[in-house]
Amino acid sequence: THRIAGAGNRRRVEVGLIYKVAFPVVGEGEAEGEAEAEASEQARERVWVATTRPETLFGDVAVVVHPDDPRYAHLHGASLRHPLLPRRLPLLTDDAFVDPALGTGAVKVTPAHSHADFEFARRRGGLLDMSLDVLNDDGTLNAVCGPPFEGVDRLDARRLVVDALQ
Fold first, then answer.
1. Which burial class, exposed, middle or buried, applies to 60 when counting CB atoms under 10 A from its CB (0-12, 13-18, 19+)?
2. Prediction pTM value
């Protein structure tokens, strides 16, 4: 890991850390909105992903697993709850995008903040929102992230997001 000071950010922030994030599996018949969020919070099954940039979680549009990974075979085609926003993400399969031997075997897709994720979304033929950008030009989080994250510098937001996930 390294410690850096971002442009306009006077305090040093540790980078290179890996954060594990849980995406709850949406149960059958769960309603949209608040009831869904409560039900998902109580769900036992979760798909875990690892990220070095938790502040970009707001731009996630899907989670992908390898089609032959037995850990996720029963979840193919399931929906997941975003851990911070009231929205669902599809659980997709792809044999080239995910290496089941690495990490959790599940990869989050953030097309506006990763070229590899953008190319994956493009190959999916427009099924995924490729433009869900969460950063303003000045490096602060934008309105997609909502309060209390909107307007916060991305490096400060990292800590806020990690705290919110705990």
1. buried
2. 0.84
